[in-house]
From TrEMBL:
<dbReference type="Pfam" id="PF00856">
    <property type="entry name" value="SET"/>
</dbReference>
<dbReference type="InterPro" id="IPR046341">
    <property type="entry name" value="SET_dom_sf"/>
</dbReference>
<dbReference type="InterPro" id="IPR053185">
    <property type="entry name" value="SET_domain_protein"/>
</dbReference>
<dbReference type="InterPro" id="IPR001214">
    <property type="entry name" value="SET_dom"/>
</dbReference>
<protein>
    <recommendedName>
        <fullName>SET domain-containing protein</fullName>
    </recommendedName>
</protein>
<feature type="domain" description="SET">
    <location>
        <begin position="101"/>
        <end position="277"/>
    </location>
</feature>
Length: 394
């Protein structure tokens, strides 16, 4: 009989220097994963609990990155997620790209390398879009039979080891150019038992939360990472962290790509950064969240003593009056949190409050501002707002 490892133990995956890291003795694991040759094959009849190696979008076996510049992704998915992808309207649509490249890779002080703008980029602009190199579940079930009593840390190490074996099969499916790009990414998990592939995934992956199929509840997704996927990207994964990020990223299923947007106007030469942590977390909690990445953040928010109080207030500040909303926007802007959904919610409140006053000019102004934040679900609402089109009257 195989027993499933208790998930709560695995949420505390090891990081930093771990004595005795590596594969423990005394267990057997059973992995049931299917390798797929036809990416368009229907998923009916597949065991819904088994994961599936699949290439998306579907490509010819002899495809090259040069001939197929939009690229493709090696995925490890549950069959119902593959069905969701294949039935998404427009899938696979071509990548939507900016009119010209506006960034370069370069050295970042104390952070290895990062991406820097090569021209001014305006708030809301698409900086880049790319198909991930790999897409894997944030948590993979591996059924394990313990042959002796293992410590909690050893159980974690069994899971980390088994994940590496699973990732290795995915890695071997990558085109050689993609393998090189993958292995060139940073790895902050070199002394905790993570394998080289799992370490790079843990260091570089962006969360994909829009592939939920109803298999898991919102609570399971939030607390156990069920149904959440991890995307490793060639370019976006290069972004360093800031607690006041100037970009944000969104996964678009139809084009199967991660899109990076400017959260505010970014001058030429500035480093592009996004947040690895919860935006509303305070400084100490953010540093704890960053521990697995192996650095302490020294961004302006982390160096400013009054930041914590302002950040906490900015998330709970009311939006009942126009004056409230303007004050809230100001607080969020001072904290550099234009990426926060609360910022968009406040723009929406302003739009409605001005409309309630019959002030079409200002209602349109905030509708346009909201519509130019394409990463937010509220942007579509603003775009459908008739006042948004009354530009000539503003
Ligand atoms: Zn910081």
């Amino acid at each position: 009989m195989f027993s499933v490892v208790v998930p709560s133990e695995l949420l505390e995956r090891s990081h930093g220097f771990v004595e005795n890291a590596g594969r423990p003795e005394g267990y057997e694991a059973q992995r049931t994963i299917l390798k797929e040759r036809d990416a368009l094959a229907p998923t009916e009849g597949l065991d819904s609990d088994n994961t599936l190696y699949t290439t998306q979008p579907s490509i010819r076996m002899d495809a090259t990155p040069a001939a197929f510049s939009d690229g493709w992704t090696e995925c490890l998915l549950y069959p119902d997620v593959k069905a969701l992808i294949l039935t998404t309207p427009g899938f696979p649509s071509p990548l939507f790209r900016p009119s010209s490249r506006g960034y370069r890779l370069g050295p970042s002080p104390n952070k290895g390398r990062g991406l820097f703008t090569t021209r001014k980029i305006s708030a809301g602009d698409l900086v880049l879009s790319e198909r991930p190199l790999t897409l894997t579940p944030a948590w993979i079930s591996t059924r394990v039979r313990y042959l002796k009593e293992l410590t909690a840390e050893e159980k974690v190490q069994t899971q980390i080891y088994e994940w590496e074996q699973t990732f290795k099969v995915l890695f071997d499916r990558l085109h050689p150019d993609y393998r090189t790009a993958f292995m060139a990414l940073a790895n902050s998990h070199q002394r905790d038992g993570s394998g080289p592939i799992g370490g790079i995934i843990r260091t570089n992956a962006l969360g994909v939360r829009c592939l939920q199929t109803g298999r898991y509840s919102a609570e399971e997704a939030r607390t156990l990472r069920r149904g959440i996927y991890s995307a490793v990207c060639r370019e976006i994964s290069r972004l360093n962290h800031s607690c006041s990020p100037n970009t944000t990223a969104k996964f678009d299923v139809a084009s199967f790509s991660y899109q990076l947007f400017a959260a505010r106007d970014i001058p030429k030469g500035e480093e592009l950064k996004f947040s690895y942590t919860a935006l509303n977390a305070l400084a100490e909690a953010r540093q704890t969240e960053l521990e697995p990445y192996g650095f302490r953040c020294t961004c302006s928010a982390c160096r400013t003593p009054e930041s914590d109080a302002r950040r906490a207030l900015s998330f709970v500040f009311p939006v009942e009056t126009i004056e409230d909303c303007l004050e809230k926007l100001s607080l969020l802007e001072e904290e550099g949190l234009q990426v926060a959904e609360e910022y968009c919610e406040t723009l929406k409140s302003l739009m409605n409050l001005y409309l309630g006053r019959g002030d079409v000019h200002n209602a349109s102004k905030y509708a346009r501002k909201l519509a130019s934040r394409p990463w937010s679900p509220l942007a579509d609402l603003a775009r459908s707002y008739p006042l948004h089109f009354n530009r000539s009257r503003c």
